[in-house]
Amino acid sequence: MSTEEKQVNTENVPKEEATAPTTEAQASTEEKKKIYKPTLTAEQQKMLKLRQLISRYRPRFIRMNSWRIKRLEDTWRSPRTSIDNQIRKQLKGFPPLVKIGYRGPKLVRGLHPSGFEEVVVYNVEDLQNVDPKRHAVRIARTVGRRKRAEIIKKAEEIGVRVLNG
Predict the structure, then answer these.
(1) Which candidate, 63, 62, 61, 64, places its Cα nearest to that of 84?
(2) Within 13-162, where are the H helices?
(3) pLDDT digits (tens, 9 = 90+) for 62-86
(4) DSSP for residue 123
């Protein structure tokens, strides 16, 4: 029964949608759009998964008294100078203190979750120093719309992944 249903479903699909592009221009654009995946060792892949697992259990570090005083933001500030600070003393019932043990694996530190090294790009010329197999591009926030479009177009030609494009 299931094989007959599959045959019926393929017959209902129009032939134009089922066929692959036949023109040379379309085939050449598909070759240009080849986007690389990062070349990672087995150990690096394992460490990326481990970093993702560790970060699930990493606590949210917040500033002392930010839950009490509205004008204080939640962003972390070290309590190292306070005499009686409960976070510095690591008392029960207070947010955790930042420690070296919460850090990720050294092998993949600084890598994007996809495994690429991030490179910030400000103009089209910056793309010349980028290796598509190792680097992914992040367009700087100060770049305008016109230059951003040029950077994205050039990155597609080279085969570089744009993280925020």
Answers:
(1) 64
(2) 15-18, 24-32, 42-57, 86-89, 145-158
(3) 999 999 999 999 999 999 888 999 9
(4) S
